[in-house]
Amino acid sequence: MASMETHQKTVGRPAPKEQCGIIADMMKKHGKMEAGQTWCLISSKWLETWIDYTGSKAFWQYRPEEDNSMSSAIVPGPIENSVLLEVKDSNEDKEEKNLPDGIVHLRMSAQEIQDFFFLPLPVWETLCGWYTGGPLIKRTTKMAGVITKRVKVDLHPVYVVLAPCKSSSENDIVKFDTAAVRPYPRDATLQKVLEDEAKRYKSASGTKAMNTEEGEQGTQKIDKMEEEDVGAADRKSAAEAASTPTKSEDKEEKNKEAAVRLWYREETRRTFPYEVGERVEACYRGEWYPGDLLHLADKDPHNRFVVLCDEDKDKKSKPTTKVKLIRREKLLPGEGEKIISWKPVNDMQLRVQLGDPNFSLVSNRVCKLMLETKKTDGTWVREIKVRDWRDFEVNDEIDCLDTENHWLAAQVLQVNNNRIYVTYIGYERDWNEWIDTNSERLAKAGTHCERKEFSRRMDYDDGDWRGGGGGYSGGGVRGSVGLRNLGNTCFMNSTLQCMNATPVLADFFVDGDYTSEINPDAYKSHGRIAREFGKLLKEMWDRRPHTVTPSRFKSAIGDYSDRFSGYQQQDSQELLAALLEGLHEDLNRVRKKPYDPNPVIGNGEDDEEKAELSWSKHRKREDSVIIDNIYGQIRSQVICPACNRASVKFDPCGILQLPFPNVDTKVQVVTLVRANPELPRRAYAVAVPKNGSVIDLHQELAKMAAGVNAKKLVSCEIYQSKVYKIFSPRHQLESIMANDKIYAFECPDLKEGKDRDNVIIAVNHKVSGGSSYYDQDFGTPFLLTLPLERRSSGASSASYDDDDEYISAEKAQRIIREKAMMHVENTNTAATSSSSEAAAPSRFKVMFKQGYDDFKEYKNGEKIQFGRSFEAALFWEKKDYYQPAGIKKDKSLQSSGGGSGGEVVTLEGCLRGFTKEELLSAGNEYKCDHCGHEGRGKKKLDLWRLPNILIIQLKRFQYTRHYRSKIETYVEYPLEGLDMSPWTRCEAQKKDSTYDLFAVSCHGGGLGGGHYWAYAKNLIDKKWYTLNDSSVSRMSPEKVRTSDAYLLFYVKRGATQKK
């Protein structure tokens, strides 16, 4: 790299207090940053040393909490700014040795305050005069911002190096080490460079006569144009003085008046056309195979060469190989030699942003060009050969008639003898095609299609775009636009709308700041996620009212994570997590992550020290705008049950996942049927653990109902007046839904295990419909136990099968009739129409069914064999004869709101549930690193470091082995003034812990057919909008609170004003 500018001369250095006063006065005069200024960067470490030495308060805004009244005795050494610069490898150093002074690349990971401070140029010059050092890192300021207008320092400019054109010979060596250097923002174009040079040319021509000698003319003019202030030259005159070579006749007239032109250097390798029959090597699936060339690529519709490989010559069929890439087995004389030529910058290259990663004229943020100016006689130094428009070259623009008979603007991608490969500008590459060069489908650019000048500079105004154009799905304000649903992508649209409304991040992407931090070697996506997300947000903030189609982003996130590659409904939180991960990797300022195998673990006594050390280690590996704004720290503590010692870790956290209060328990409504018919049936709301079993349900029910033995209870689910399932004692409660109709029957004769001598059966109520297929179930069935008899056998009781168990039909019918009398109302009131008579055994018949047989009434002496397909039922003559027993409601139902959860859940309650201490579950034991004991320790989570953007997930979706469910409970959350100070253990974080809501991702409906949408506050007009796919409408803030809220997005007050 060229030598960097430093200050070596030391002037008389005043005393510390005098230095303090001088710098304070200069900061008062020059310290206000405005657009168009030059500011310098200085190492934070050095400046802090100087502040400690002098006690200066001129930079008080950087350290407001410190008291510098007592100065340090340490005298600062020379300014050391080299730590802020990129470290180049040996190859890059060789490439940049011939570059001029003034090209200084700031390290991508360098951050303001943490690594450097901004100083006005006079302050920098003064400090350098006192202490020497360097290098000088100058940066210009500009007014920027689509959403929020602000003065911005261009930290990572692209340097345009302009060498003067002295000769028309291609063999002359152009020296760039003495060329002029122009820093430009990454969103600038070469058209801007050309216009600026035209201004300098016009200004220089008006102040000093030009030399007539060609050699001196170029150098002196460049130097003079560097010195002159060209800001007064108007843009129209500059455009007339600027020239770019073109094939268009109307522009050739304009070039006669042009004064400057740009040329770029092209390096190619000498090649010779292939001939049929020569020896080549074919590239097939990454391997090279020698063989004979049979056909050239221009004979194939897909532009493939046909090669007969040596290993296929011995085969009978002699199969050929078609490939697009071949090479000669032996190079011809002169083949592969480097050819350097200078070519004029064309129209398309003029319109590409300098920061575009695919722009071939920019390498390592340096664009080396040759600047040609007219001689005094009005002629040019170099001659441009005007090509026929059909003499195609790569990147040529033409008009092309597509297969649907429409003229479209196109660009040449490849040239192969008499054919060209074209792409239609603005269309997917699937439409690319090969066309003969003499085809009538081709026309000179501009013949049929109007070329629109485009620029990706974001020089928008501040005002809202309000329009009444037809077809607009937006709310009438810029930034609030619809996103087209591509097929079950409402979850993605909801997340993108929330991210589009995120302060700081939206500015960062829409203004294009992300382009300077993209890591092309990022894991998996190689910068694609950041690029497509940035393009999408820029389109969403376009001034034109429209609906945006996020298909490119959908493709990018699908390639990054296979889960989102298809068109199935997904979770918006999972997409958000993948998006944040992808953006962070693409924008990570740390290119080589250091390996650190030692985790930071504390004991609870040194939290501040351990938390800072843990965060510092994390930032050494993960450093991006996502980490800067969205990530905080969680304090995780586990206490050993044996030695009572605490183990504390501090983990980074991006999305705060909050459980609902009492999320580990559920309320199950159960109707208890007592064995004593004089005791009424009673419905209870029983609180049970979600991961518990029916045993837990029976135990809790026994505590609520006096005189009940939990071991004598049998529970079942009744569905459509029929026993749907009898639960075993170990049946998991997580498979029982909240709205399932559950009954628990008291069976005093129930025995389990080896002592079992009875069987549990279900008895349903039916009325005959003429055949078993039309028999109707009604009423409430019941459970009972029947005594068992077993066939004589020498086997032990443990070896009996169900098929060995039976009971006499007469005995079974008698027991069922007796039990049936207990399960119907038996009161002599007028309303029941003589219920005692209705319940008489003559009104129903006891019938049994086995397998696929019909129900039948067994005769005396017959035996009923019990199997898995055995059923019993009471067949009533009329439904009116059946009078069900009444059910009373226990007071537990009233306190639980009827079993639906009547409590009002608040966000505070969710935070309290997140931070409460809990016992580790079985199978998740903790091994103490102090005493070695392994057991169920007590775990507690707390917030520690609060982020600028706080994203909260309300964990509505519950997933277990047996079922999935959604919690529909309404959560009360504040729109403004969320105070997070009670939930952070860090005292320093409590001073700045107030948040305001700006977006909500909502989910409505069930798990299978639900729908996502978003509520978001527009960053310009500060109004709330409903963003439901392509539909956008204004809404009142009161409606932002909803039971459908799933993801809450909060911004810390003052975060948008911080640097």
Report on the structure:
With 1059 residues, this protein is of the alpha+beta class. It contains 21 helices and 53 strands. Strands 25, 44, 48, 49, 50, 51, 52 and 53 form an eight-stranded mixed beta sheet that branches. Strands 7, 8, 9, 10, 16 and 17 form a six-stranded mixed beta sheet that branches. A six-stranded mixed beta sheet has the order 29-28-30-26-27-38. α5 packs across α6 (214-227). The longest helix is centred in the first third of the chain and has 18 residues, at 190-207. It is globular. Residues 1-10, 64-70, 209-236, 246-256, 452-475, 793-802, 826-839 and 897-903 have low confidence and may be disordered.
